[in-house]
Protein backbone atom coordinates (compact mmCIF):
# COMPACT_ATOMS: atom_id res chain seq x y z
CA UNK A 1 0.00 0.00 0.00
CA UNK A 2 2.85 2.36 0.87
CA UNK A 3 4.54 1.54 -2.43
CA UNK A 4 1.32 2.37 -4.30
CA UNK A 5 1.10 5.75 -2.58
CA UNK A 6 4.69 6.53 -3.59
CA UNK A 7 4.02 5.51 -7.18
CA UNK A 8 0.84 7.61 -7.27
CA UNK A 9 2.77 10.61 -5.92
CA UNK A 10 5.49 10.19 -8.56
CA UNK A 11 2.83 9.83 -11.25
CA UNK A 12 1.05 12.96 -9.96
CA UNK A 13 4.26 15.01 -10.13
CA UNK A 14 4.85 13.73 -13.65
CA UNK A 15 1.27 14.69 -14.57
CA UNK A 16 1.80 18.22 -13.25
CA UNK A 17 4.97 18.64 -15.32
CA UNK A 18 3.21 17.26 -18.41
CA UNK A 19 0.30 19.69 -17.97
CA UNK A 20 2.71 22.63 -17.73
CA UNK A 21 4.38 21.59 -20.98
CA UNK A 22 0.95 21.13 -22.59
CA UNK A 23 0.01 24.66 -21.50
CA UNK A 24 3.12 26.06 -23.20
CA UNK A 25 2.25 24.10 -26.34
CA UNK A 26 -1.28 25.54 -26.22
CA UNK A 27 0.16 29.08 -26.24
CA UNK A 28 2.10 28.23 -29.41
CA UNK A 29 -0.81 26.51 -31.16
CA UNK A 30 -3.62 28.92 -30.29
CA UNK A 31 -1.51 32.03 -30.11
CA UNK A 32 0.17 31.60 -33.51
CA UNK A 33 -1.19 28.81 -35.68
CA UNK A 34 -4.89 28.70 -34.77
CA UNK A 35 -5.99 32.13 -33.49
CA UNK A 36 -9.71 32.64 -32.99
CA UNK A 37 -11.88 31.71 -34.81
CA UNK A 38 -9.74 29.17 -36.68
CA UNK A 39 -9.37 26.96 -33.60
CA UNK A 40 -13.09 26.31 -34.07
CA UNK A 41 -13.54 26.73 -37.82
CA UNK A 42 -10.61 24.49 -38.73
CA UNK A 43 -10.87 22.02 -35.84
CA UNK A 44 -7.60 23.11 -34.25
CA UNK A 45 -8.91 22.74 -30.73
CA UNK A 46 -10.05 19.14 -31.18
CA UNK A 47 -6.83 18.15 -32.94
CA UNK A 48 -4.65 19.74 -30.25
CA UNK A 49 -6.61 18.19 -27.39
CA UNK A 50 -6.34 14.76 -28.99
CA UNK A 51 -2.59 15.08 -29.44
CA UNK A 52 -1.94 16.51 -25.96
CA UNK A 53 -4.31 14.16 -24.15
CA UNK A 54 -2.40 11.14 -25.44
CA UNK A 55 0.93 12.68 -24.46
CA UNK A 56 -0.18 13.93 -21.04
CA UNK A 57 -1.78 10.63 -20.08
CA UNK A 58 0.95 8.38 -21.49
CA UNK A 59 3.87 9.65 -19.38
CA UNK A 60 2.23 9.60 -15.93
CA UNK A 61 0.74 6.15 -16.59
CA UNK A 62 4.13 4.75 -17.53
CA UNK A 63 5.60 6.34 -14.40
CA UNK A 64 2.86 4.75 -12.30
CA UNK A 65 3.67 1.36 -13.80
CA UNK A 66 7.48 1.41 -13.57
CA UNK A 67 8.34 3.59 -10.57
CA UNK A 68 9.93 1.64 -7.73
CA UNK A 69 12.07 3.30 -5.06
CA UNK A 70 13.84 0.00 -4.51
CA UNK A 71 15.53 0.39 -7.89
CA UNK A 72 19.06 1.80 -7.99
CA UNK A 73 19.21 5.57 -8.58
CA UNK A 74 20.90 5.08 -11.95
CA UNK A 75 18.19 2.70 -13.12
CA UNK A 76 15.43 5.11 -12.06
CA UNK A 77 17.18 7.93 -13.90
CA UNK A 78 17.41 5.79 -17.02
CA UNK A 79 13.70 4.90 -16.75
CA UNK A 80 12.66 8.54 -16.46
CA UNK A 81 14.96 9.53 -19.31
CA UNK A 82 13.36 6.95 -21.62
CA UNK A 83 9.84 8.03 -20.59
CA UNK A 84 10.74 11.67 -21.14
CA UNK A 85 12.19 10.95 -24.57
CA UNK A 86 9.05 9.02 -25.53
CA UNK A 87 6.87 11.95 -24.46
CA UNK A 88 8.99 14.48 -26.27
CA UNK A 89 8.90 12.38 -29.44
CA UNK A 90 5.12 11.97 -29.21
CA UNK A 91 4.55 15.68 -28.50
CA UNK A 92 6.90 16.74 -31.31
CA UNK A 93 5.13 14.49 -33.80
CA UNK A 94 1.74 15.70 -32.59
CA UNK A 95 2.68 19.37 -32.84
CA UNK A 96 4.13 18.78 -36.30
CA UNK A 97 0.80 17.26 -37.35
CA UNK A 98 -1.08 20.25 -35.93
CA UNK A 99 1.35 22.61 -37.67
CA UNK A 100 0.95 20.91 -41.05
CA UNK A 101 -2.84 21.09 -40.74
CA UNK A 102 -2.83 24.79 -39.75
CA UNK A 103 -4.90 27.34 -41.68
CA UNK A 104 -2.68 29.57 -43.82
CA UNK A 105 -5.06 31.76 -45.82
CA UNK A 106 -8.56 33.15 -45.60
CA UNK A 107 -9.49 33.38 -49.27
CA UNK A 108 -12.10 35.44 -51.07
CA UNK A 109 -13.42 32.92 -53.57
CA UNK A 110 -15.57 35.00 -55.95
CA UNK A 111 -18.76 34.98 -53.89
CA UNK A 112 -17.69 33.65 -50.51
CA UNK A 113 -14.75 33.17 -48.18
CA UNK A 114 -12.96 29.89 -47.61
CA UNK A 115 -10.03 28.68 -45.51
CA UNK A 116 -6.95 27.06 -46.99
CA UNK A 117 -4.81 24.78 -44.83
CA UNK A 118 -1.15 23.99 -45.32
CA UNK A 119 -1.91 20.30 -45.73
CA UNK A 120 -4.23 21.07 -48.67
CA UNK A 121 -1.47 22.64 -50.73
CA UNK A 122 1.16 21.16 -52.99
CA UNK A 123 4.19 23.19 -51.95
CA UNK A 124 5.79 22.45 -55.32
CA UNK A 125 3.10 24.62 -56.91
CA UNK A 126 3.66 27.64 -54.68
CA UNK A 127 6.00 29.04 -57.33
CA UNK A 128 2.89 29.69 -59.45
CA UNK A 129 1.59 32.14 -56.86
CA UNK A 130 2.58 35.83 -56.88
CA UNK A 131 6.07 36.32 -55.38
CA UNK A 132 4.77 37.76 -52.09
CA UNK A 133 2.43 34.79 -51.59
CA UNK A 134 4.92 31.99 -52.23
CA UNK A 135 5.74 31.55 -48.55
CA UNK A 136 3.11 30.16 -46.23
CA UNK A 137 2.58 32.24 -43.07
CA UNK A 138 3.75 30.86 -39.73
CA UNK A 139 1.80 33.18 -37.45
CA UNK A 140 -1.82 32.67 -38.43
CA UNK A 141 -3.79 32.95 -41.66
CA UNK A 142 -3.44 35.92 -43.99
CA UNK A 143 -6.24 37.22 -46.20
CA UNK A 144 -5.95 36.80 -49.97
CA UNK A 145 -8.29 36.57 -52.96
CA UNK A 146 -8.65 34.68 -56.22
CA UNK A 147 -8.08 36.60 -59.43
CA UNK A 148 -10.68 36.68 -62.23
CA UNK A 149 -10.43 33.90 -64.79
CA UNK A 150 -8.40 34.76 -67.86
CA UNK A 151 -10.96 33.34 -70.25
CA UNK A 152 -13.92 30.96 -70.51
CA UNK A 153 -11.63 27.98 -71.05
CA UNK A 154 -9.88 28.56 -67.73
CA UNK A 155 -13.22 29.08 -66.00
CA UNK A 156 -14.57 25.83 -67.44
CA UNK A 157 -11.45 23.94 -66.37
CA UNK A 158 -11.72 25.31 -62.83
CA UNK A 159 -15.44 24.55 -62.66
CA UNK A 160 -14.91 20.95 -63.72
CA UNK A 161 -12.11 20.57 -61.17
CA UNK A 162 -14.38 21.96 -58.46
CA UNK A 163 -17.16 19.54 -59.43
CA UNK A 164 -14.63 16.71 -59.01
CA UNK A 165 -13.85 17.82 -55.48
CA UNK A 166 -10.98 20.21 -56.18
CA UNK A 167 -10.96 23.46 -54.23
CA UNK A 168 -10.43 26.65 -56.19
CA UNK A 169 -8.79 28.23 -53.16
CA UNK A 170 -5.90 25.77 -53.34
CA UNK A 171 -5.14 26.82 -56.92
CA UNK A 172 -2.00 28.87 -56.26
CA UNK A 173 -2.01 30.15 -59.85
CA UNK A 174 -5.30 31.94 -59.09
CA UNK A 175 -4.08 33.70 -55.95
CA UNK A 176 -3.79 37.47 -55.75
CA UNK A 177 -3.54 40.02 -52.96
CA UNK A 178 -6.75 40.69 -51.08
CA UNK A 179 -6.82 44.40 -51.82
CA UNK A 180 -6.61 43.68 -55.56
CA UNK A 181 -10.14 42.26 -55.32
CA UNK A 182 -11.72 45.12 -53.34
CA UNK A 183 -14.27 45.95 -56.02
CA UNK A 184 -15.29 42.29 -56.47
CA UNK A 185 -15.54 41.78 -52.71
CA UNK A 186 -17.80 44.80 -52.27
CA UNK A 187 -19.97 43.58 -55.13
CA UNK A 188 -20.38 40.13 -53.59
CA UNK A 189 -20.79 41.21 -49.96
CA UNK A 190 -24.20 42.08 -48.53
CA UNK A 191 -25.14 44.68 -45.89
CA UNK A 192 -24.76 43.35 -42.36
CA UNK A 193 -28.08 44.99 -41.50
CA UNK A 194 -29.77 42.21 -43.49
CA UNK A 195 -28.60 39.50 -41.10
CA UNK A 196 -31.19 40.19 -38.40
CA UNK A 197 -33.95 40.15 -41.00
CA UNK A 198 -32.73 36.85 -42.45
CA UNK A 199 -32.05 35.18 -39.12
CA UNK A 200 -34.33 36.74 -36.47
CA UNK A 201 -33.84 33.72 -34.20
CA UNK A 202 -30.09 34.54 -34.09
CA UNK A 203 -30.55 38.25 -33.45
CA UNK A 204 -28.73 38.27 -30.10
CA UNK A 205 -25.74 36.39 -31.49
CA UNK A 206 -25.61 38.64 -34.55
CA UNK A 207 -25.80 41.82 -32.47
CA UNK A 208 -22.99 40.59 -30.20
CA UNK A 209 -20.75 39.80 -33.19
CA UNK A 210 -21.41 43.25 -34.71
CA UNK A 211 -20.77 44.95 -31.36
CA UNK A 212 -17.44 43.12 -31.05
CA UNK A 213 -16.23 44.71 -34.30
CA UNK A 214 -16.55 48.15 -32.77
CA UNK A 215 -18.44 49.38 -35.83
CA UNK A 216 -22.12 50.12 -36.41
CA UNK A 217 -23.98 47.57 -38.51
CA UNK A 218 -24.47 50.16 -41.27
CA UNK A 219 -20.69 50.28 -41.86
CA UNK A 220 -20.35 46.51 -42.18
CA UNK A 221 -21.01 43.94 -44.86
CA UNK A 222 -20.89 40.17 -44.68
CA UNK A 223 -19.77 37.19 -46.71
CA UNK A 224 -20.47 33.50 -46.09
CA UNK A 225 -17.48 31.42 -45.06
CA UNK A 226 -17.18 27.74 -45.90
CA UNK A 227 -14.68 25.38 -44.32
CA UNK A 228 -14.31 21.63 -44.04
CA UNK A 229 -16.25 21.55 -40.76
CA UNK A 230 -18.97 24.17 -40.93
CA UNK A 231 -20.31 27.33 -42.51
CA UNK A 232 -19.65 30.69 -40.80
CA UNK A 233 -20.11 34.36 -41.65
CA UNK A 234 -17.37 36.98 -41.99
CA UNK A 235 -18.13 40.60 -41.14
CA UNK A 236 -16.08 43.04 -43.23
CA UNK A 237 -15.63 46.78 -43.36
CA UNK A 238 -17.92 48.30 -45.99
CA UNK A 239 -15.10 50.44 -47.39
CA UNK A 240 -11.74 48.74 -46.82
CA UNK A 241 -13.24 45.17 -46.95
CA UNK A 242 -10.98 44.25 -44.03
CA UNK A 243 -12.37 41.26 -42.07
CA UNK A 244 -13.46 42.52 -38.66
CA UNK A 245 -15.46 39.71 -37.13
CA UNK A 246 -16.65 36.15 -37.42
CA UNK A 247 -20.01 34.63 -36.64
CA UNK A 248 -20.87 30.90 -36.41
CA UNK A 249 -23.83 31.36 -38.75
CA UNK A 250 -24.57 29.72 -42.09
CA UNK A 251 -25.45 32.72 -44.26
CA UNK A 252 -25.33 31.00 -47.64
> Biggest sheet, in brief?
8 strands, mixed
The outline comes out as elongated
Task: Tally the beta strands.
Answer: 8
- Percent of residues in helices comes to 40-55%
Number of helices: 8
Terminal Cα span:
62 Å
Quick check: average pLDDT? 88
Task: Summarize the helix and strand pattern as letters.
Answer: HHHHEEEHEHEHHEEE
Radius of gyration: 24 Å
Structural class: alpha+beta
Oligomeric nature of the chains: single chain
Strand content is 15-25%
- List low-pLDDT spans: none
- The domain count comes to 3
Overview of this protein structure:
- With 252 residues, the protein is an alpha+beta fold.
- It has three domains: 2-100, no CATH class; 104-180, no CATH class; 189-252, no CATH class.
- Helices cover 48% and strands 16% of the residues.
- The chain has helices at 2-33, 38-41, 44-66, 73-100, 152-163, 182-188, 194-198, 203-213, and strands spanning 103-108, 113-117, 142-146, 175-177, 190-191, 220-226, 231-237, 243-247.
- Strands 1, 2, 3, 4, 5, 6, 7 and 8 form an eight-stranded mixed beta sheet that branches.
- The termini are far apart.
Amino acid sequence: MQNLKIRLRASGIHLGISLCIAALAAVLVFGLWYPYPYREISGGRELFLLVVAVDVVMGPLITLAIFNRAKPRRELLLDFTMVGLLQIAALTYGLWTVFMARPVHLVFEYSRMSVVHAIDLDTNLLSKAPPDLQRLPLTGPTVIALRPFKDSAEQLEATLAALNGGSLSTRTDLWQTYTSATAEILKAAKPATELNARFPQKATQIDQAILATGRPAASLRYLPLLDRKAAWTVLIDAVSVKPLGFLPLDSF
